[in-house]
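Researcher: Structure for this, please.
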Amino acid sequence: MMLIGGYVLDPEQGRLQIPILHQPTAEAVEAIVRQYASRDGVISLVIDPEPEYGPYKLNLYTDSGNFFLMLSQYLEDGEHDVKTISNQRAGAEMIEILGDRYPARSMTKDIIFICSCFKEFLRVGNVSESKLVIL
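Model: Predicted structure, token format:
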């Protein structure tokens, strides 16, 4: 089963929860991503229950129009691994996302790309490594 949810940061009201949606359709996932990606916050698509190994969560961190995507997975040896975008078009500077600094090459501003990653994760429970490279 898949769940989508998260939160956005509102300057006046603080942290506002995105309602959790169980077993979302591809259309619902895209609508949620598009609705909340323009605001600072986090959107998560999660496999529930988590598998013993393999991908289990796709997080999108949004801040000032920058999208930082993290694919979390458990490796067979019990270790944890996180994959991010490799954006070959971006510069080498560091950009702040929700208080932490990350390389610009790990980000994009392309909402169509982000939606396609979320829909792929929903469909197959993973995002292919080749897709995470933006040339």
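Researcher: Any notable elements?
Model: The CA atoms of residues 5 and 127 lie 18 Å apart. The chain has two helices and eleven strands.
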